[in-house]
Amino acid sequence: MAITAARMGLVSCPSCRLLSRAGSAEPAGCPRCGAHLEARKPDSLRRTTAYLAATVVLFVPANLLPVLTTRRLVRVQSDTILSGVVALWTAGSWPLAIVVFVASIVVPGLKVLALALLVATTRWRPSWRRRERTRLYRLLEAVGRWSMLDIFVMALLLALVRSPLAAVHVEPGAVAFAAVVILTMLASHSFDPRLIWDRGEKEP
Amino acid sequence: VLVRGGGRRDRALAFALAGIPLLAIAAGTPLVRLTGRDGQAEATVWGAARALHEQGRWSLAALVLATTLLVPALQILAALVVVLVARWSRATPRSLRLWGTLAAMRPWNQVPILLLGLLVTCGKLTTAYHVQPGVGFVALVALVLVERSIGGALALPPFLPTASAPALAPALEERRAA
After folding, report:
1. For residue A61, which of A176, B25, B84, B144 is within the disulfide window of CB 3.0 to 4.6 Å?
2. What is the ipTM metric for this complex?
């Protein structure tokens, strides 16, 4: 059986990282910095599931609605995130196409799937591949924030391409896409990876 | 009182002080300049957010400003307070909580992603325009390096005011006995 701080009756302060005995200090307060102590993030799985559900709902408009409309002289073109990637690829900018594809499509998609897997396995198959799931969570934390790339590209294009001959307009799909990125970050933040090690062990 | 990491603390202080002018330059000076048949254009972080706001996308404008200016500014400020408190007095509960907040803010600092976004934007526009990096671009690169260095220097708190061993000891004893 794996040794965990929780089984040893220890609680780690989320703020100053002091390890203290659960219930040894003033009620639920860190004896060093006074921060509120919780053995685990409260309602972690429920919160993560709620954020994930909202992400899945917004994932559809984020990928189907146009995010950017470009006007050059009389030619007007609206692009979704995927069609923007295709346009970059066909224009010969395949390194940029790969970067945008990975950051804007692969990372958010995989993040949703991976978080759903983490929540589902923590709930229903807690003892399944704990070590690999912990690594998966660490990976999510590391790469998750890179999805905001397209929002910055749009903002910079908007500031740069503003002339009578050419202009860009940010469409509602961009707002949905930004919401997806923020929600996946919140989902990842609300998931408590220590839950991976908490459940499913036979008590000695 | 145990004090540790004097070197790291001074490094963090130096990097945090360097971060202030770098952030100001990155925010206020052009990141990139475009020259084309239809004239010249330049983009600043502030200008990009303002352009989004002018198109009615205030939520995106707020997101850009918060993640590229506000959060980095708060991080630098928090790092300064934490390090100065550690340097001249004992750690206070407030400074310890601030150190915890500093770590929690890290994912919301999007300056490295802005930098990558800038490179992608330049790559997109090079076929139609002459693209020239501005002073803000250099400041942004330096800011990313400075923020990484602050994060590295403050990965552990720059002070250890009370040892955690007394709290741990009974549990470890119980474990050994079991």
Report:
1. A176
2. 0.84
Type and span of the H or E element at A48: helix A44-64
Which residues, including other chains, have CB under 8 Å from residue A95's CB and lie 6 or more apart?
Answer: B123
Question: In terms of DSSP H, where are the helices of chain B?
Answer: 6-28, 45-54, 58-65, 71-88, 93-105, 111-125, 135-153, 165-177
Side-chain half-sphere of A128: how many Cα atoms within 13 Å? 11
Which residues of chain A does B174 touch, with a Cβ-Cβ cutoff of 8 Å? Answer: 8
Taking phi over 0 as left and psi of -120 to 50 as alpha, with beta for the rest, B35 belongs to beta
**pLDDT tens, chain B, 178 aa long:** 344 556 778 888 999 999 999 999 999 899 999 888 777 888 999 999 999 999 999 999 999 999 999 999 999 999 998 888 887 777 777 888 888 888 888 889 999 999 999 999 998 888 888 888 999 999 999 999 999 998 888 877 766 544 444 444 554 555 556 5
- By Cβ distance, the residue of B31, B96, B116 closest to A15 is B96
Compare CB distances from B38 to A10, A35, A164 and report the shortest one's residue: A164
Chain A residues whose CB is inside 8 A of the B52 CB are 155, 158, 170
Q: What is the model's pTM?
A: 0.84
Distance CA B140, CA B135 (A): 9
CA distance A63 to A105: 8
Residue A22, classified by CB atoms within 10 Å of its CB into exposed (0-12), middle (13-18) or buried (19+), is: middle
